[in-house]
């Protein structure tokens, strides 16, 4: 973890109509850091992700990725600059197989762009890369199955897989272990550690076990504001956090 | 559509499987006009080939890209108009393009026109895209009468396809020679469109169709994906238009308007948008019905409309979908178990259909024929349309058929449940 | 001067007719997300019902009965057809309504034939209300205007002041939430679809004798109505109103101008040679561009302001 800032949120505000959802968030995530965002339901965690990834426009403030301002850019432009995100509700390409999904996620970063003259079957390197990635998320035995037939945990694993496929340096994972059993969660955490090796990881999570295992630093988001950003131990002992966020350890 | 792309394995067996279909199709196309060699049959087959290219090009938008267009015929028609003008130029001695390459001229024209219209068309998706396509086709149609030197006004533009210079040496005066030219381009276009589905653009078009929210997050500008897919589909539609110009030696505004656009939508959807071969089925069936029904009944459009609505309500994956749904049962060798209940339901269905047919034909005769009081003909039987017997018969048949059909359909459902359970237990499904 | 005033009045009448049609469509779209391709077909059915009932009982009963019948037809189509298709997504819904439009046209051909119906303005409304400059302004146009304004006001009040209206507005954006509050959302959908169709039918009853009543009514007017809602902004009633008036004005005014680009050049004393490049383009007279203008407007809107006049940015 260096002292360079990978992702910088400066006075970020978001209002929907009359309702203010995000009220002045300041957050500086260091390059190579594993950073968790926690907070009660409705605090606006997914909204923050949507703002960072360009899904919603900012009402006020700015967001910088590796020093470059990205607010106002289209999601695909932000993605190409090196930021990727997963979704809380699994968001895959429903009619394709696991292999197809992964391959699609690799296409842009391997330079295929909008080609209509390369035949997919013949692209050895691309296909090998896809097989490799599927191996990394432990789904080789299921790679030709249509994603509709996967179990929930498998879908979540695939969601992580296609998120990081493009090789982005800054990875946003939105509640990756939601709905998982204990053993599934353990596997997911191993996967998250593995894929974020040497990269910047920002996770929204409810599972405190995961958070304290994984994170270098934690930010606590309550009612659209960050009330504390610190190491896990300090957060655990922070009075304001304890008050605002009554859920202690969430054992799943 | 589950489109699994197998990494090609080597070996003779795989080669046969992959290329076998194409070889067989090419052979079929060569042999057919030798068997069915009447003028009518050859014309029908030529039209079918053109429709196949047009429908497949349309499915690049609808089935592959998830874009519902009500105005695809503008590229078909524009390709046709440019092609016929090109032939005219050769007729006038101003150019030396061989007839064999004219479809390509149409294709390029369609492609350029799609580039022009595509950028703004694809800015929006879904319903809005559909409406924009309708607006654009109406725009083009409104222009037809304003530019008579290009569109030829009401009569259209005609030319003579027997050119002096030819690559293959054929004169293309006879229907069969024209058919072979059309069929040749059909096989090429179909192969190219199939291969396109296996390219990065083709795959991303599928991805954008399935999940336009996710696609940007794997790095793609979904507007550009749709725009490029749109333009390519215009290319192939233009090829079909060029072949149309060759086939009829005349192109008029009917081929560029909303009705032609509606027709390709109907045939593609009925054939099935979820599988590559679906539009091929639809195009063949639609052309066949179009050309034969016109001689039998005035109510052809009604039957077509009912078929379309039936497919939307009960078989949204079209004919191809129905066929493919039976694939696992066929593979398990259990298809014979379904046949008795299918045949029974077919019988009851036909009864209902006959009743409806009589009903529709009587009405058509009474409203639209010139002398409604004269007796009408149906299936060789002559009778008075305004007598009460035919009405009673029609209604009786429809009601009886309906009540027979309902339990039979339930029975089919039960048979399916039975079979799926068996196959699940046997580890097949 | 005369030309402008008369054209303005005529634009108003035509524009309000367009608005009657596009408002029902906007409601259904904004509410259910489904674009009813058959909306203009319901307009046609309204005209035919209006004609038939007028011939049998009289115009005034027809004015009430015909829209109700069309509304019932619409509700039935929603209940027994659209609801089944709903689960297959918006594209399937649009295709279904396209099929319905197709069938309605064929059925109308089947029942009434190909020739235009002699649907006349009723005798009680067939006089001149005032004479402007030298043109007679028939009272029927005033009647049409009145009906459309009354309809607009009634719709506005219904949506904002009544309980049903507020439920409809809520279901517009949060159908699930409204369902969980205990309201029968499918029933609300059916009511809205039927209501929107009834509006189209009403437009048909009063428009059918002003314009012509023939089986091609839907094909002629339908695309223009769709352009209205694209230009106005999908889902916006105010946008639909503005766009309706704008497009009506464009078409009505264009008819009066006998100029072409050749004439424009003549103003600057430029003459075209005998064989100019692309001869047709220079000779087009504005008066013949009428059918073209709504679609041209749509293209311009899409280039410069894709969300429409009052549209929301898609999230």
Give a quick rundown of the structure.
The complex is a heterotrimer of chains A (252), B (429) and C (315). Chain A has nine helices and ten strands. Chain A is of the alpha/beta class and 252 residues long.
Task: Walk me through what this model shows.
The complex is a heterotrimer of chains A (252), B (429) and C (315). Chain A is of the alpha/beta class. Chain A folds into two domains: 1-82 and 168-245, 3-Layer(aba) Sandwich (Rossmann fold); 90-166, no CATH class. Chain A is built from nine helices and ten strands. In chain A, strands 6-7-8-3-9-10 form a six-stranded mixed beta sheet, sandwiched between helices. In chain A, a hairpin with a 2-residue loop joins strand 4 and strand 5. In chain A, helix 3 packs parallel to helix 5 (152-164) and helix 5 runs parallel beside helix 6. Chain A is globular and about 55 Å long. The two termini of chain A are 30 Å apart. With 429 residues, chain B is mostly helical. Chain B has two domains: 21-315, ABC transporter involved in vitamin B12 uptake, BtuC (Orthogonal Bundle), CATH 1.10.3470; 326-425, Helix Hairpins (Orthogonal Bundle), CATH 1.10.287. Chain B has helices at 12-35, 39-64, 73-91, 102-121, 126-144, 148-151, 175-196, 200-210, 222-248, 258-271, 278-296, 300-314, 318-325, 327-331, 335-368, 388-425, and strands spanning 157-158, 250-251, 376-378, 381-383. In chain B, the strands form two sheets. Chain B has a two-stranded antiparallel sheet. In chain B, strands 3-4 form a two-stranded antiparallel ribbon. In chain B, strand 3 and strand 4 form a beta hairpin. The longest helix of chain B has 38 residues, at 388-425. Chain B starts with 11 loop residues before the first helix and ends with a helix. With 315 residues, chain C is mostly helical. In chain C, 70% of the residues lie in helices and 3% in strands. In chain C, strands 1-2 form a two-stranded antiparallel sheet. The longest helix of chain C has 31 residues, at 2-32. The mean pLDDT of chain C is 82. Classes of the chains: A alpha/beta (252), B mainly alpha (429), C mainly alpha (315). Chains in contact: A-B, B-C. Chains B and C meet through helix 5, helix 6, helix 10, helix 12 and helix 15 of B and helix 3, helix 4, helix 9, helix 12 and helix 13 of C.
